[in-house]
């Protein structure tokens, strides 16, 4: 039935494919290294790199988590009929680095905001009742606490760096038990914006001093029982910081980013890169 559901909307998908094809053709032409474009036997490929990039972005746009499910949807399009499932999965993982290159290159095309926001959200891999029984990503994922939902979960935590206007500059995935503060250095790598807004999870005098030494000014709200909290927690700054929560809500509603069926690191990385690039392309479309 799911296949018939997408077949019924094939006209809409064909239109979306045309738009994505134009975008991906330009991105591939502008940012893909020449050595990769003209690699050995590239002309023998049944499906071009550009077409595969289109399919990956389409998968994110449709919110399809299962590679098996999406492979069946691919048969709605001419290029998808030429792919074998195992080869499609293998080639998709081989293009992770290209999606990263494009995403990082687009970072230079946005307007230079002076303020960025950092925060994290959970990426659970199972229901809480199975936290101590599951073996998915054993040795990599672990159990952490989600303060907003007041529950323990098994999985990962996704840390994001977002501009005030809503563009995702960077992200880092850590085990669920890793404190937000420990991901800040990796998250701010190559960040040019000097002002950083964060929530109470980043409240630390040592972190503020460390950020000041690196040329950043970190602002976090103060607890209500701390001296000067009323003046420090200005409503405008609080409202600015909450914009990242709006972005997280959009990522969940549009791409279901908090749910994944990946069972390997490459599959998880591919899904994250697909979603972040698709979301940032929407940003350029709206701005």
Report on the architecture of this protein.
The chain is of the alpha/beta class. It has 2 domains: 2-94, no CATH class; 109-286, Ribonuclease H-like superfamily/Ribonuclease H (Nucleotidyltransferase, domain 5). The protein is built from 13 helices and 6 strands. Strands 1, 2, 3, 4, 5 and 6 form a 6-stranded mixed sheet that branches. The longest helix is centred in the N-terminal third of the chain and has 22 residues, at 10-31. It is globular, with a radius of gyration of 21 Å. The two termini are 37 Å apart. 31% of the residues are buried.
Let me know the average pLDDT.
87
What is the C-level CATH assignment of the largest domain?
Answer: Alpha Beta
Please indicate the count of domains.
Answer: 2
CATH superfamily of the largest domain: Ribonuclease H-like superfamily/Ribonuclease H
Estimate the global geometry from the Cα principal axes: globular
Q: Give the N-terminus to C-terminus distance in angstroms.
A: 37 Å
């Amino acid at each position: 039935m799911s296949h018939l559901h997408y077949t019924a909307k094939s006209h809409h998908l064909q239109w979306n494919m045309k738009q994505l094809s134009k975008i991906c053709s330009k991105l591939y032409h502008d940012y893909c290294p020449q050595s990769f474009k003209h690699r050995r036997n590239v002309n023998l490929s049944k499906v071009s790199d550009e077409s595969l990039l289109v399919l990956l972005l389409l998968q994110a746009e449709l919110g399809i988590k299962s590679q098996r499910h999406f492979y069946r949807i691919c048969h709605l399009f001419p290029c998808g009929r030429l792919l074998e499932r195992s080869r499609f999965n293998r080639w998709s993982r081989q293009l992770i680095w290209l999606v990263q290159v494009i995403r990082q290159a687009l970072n230079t095309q946005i307007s230079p905001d002076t303020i960025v926001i950092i925060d994290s959200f959970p990426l659970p891999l199972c229901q809480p009742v199975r936290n101590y029984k599951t073996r998915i990503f054993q040795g990599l994922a672990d159990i952490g606490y989600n303060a907003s939902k007041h529950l323990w979960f098994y999985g990962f935590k996704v840390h994001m760096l977002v501009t005030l206007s809503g563009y995702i500059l960077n992200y880092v995935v850590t085990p669920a038990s890793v404190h937000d503060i420990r991901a800040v250095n990796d998250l701010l790598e190559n960040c040019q914006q000097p002002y950083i807004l964060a929530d109470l999870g980043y409240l630390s005098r040592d972190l503020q001093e460390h950020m000041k030494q690196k040329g950043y000014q970190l602002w976090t709200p103060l607890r209500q029982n701390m001296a000067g909290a009323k003046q420090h927690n200005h409503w405008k700054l609080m409202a600015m910081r909450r914009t990242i929560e709006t972005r997280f809500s959009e990522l969940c509603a549009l791409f279901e980013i908090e749910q994944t069926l990946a069972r390997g690191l490459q599959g998880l990385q591919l899904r994250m890169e697909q979603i972040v690039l698709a979301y940032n392309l929407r940003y350029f479309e709206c701005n």
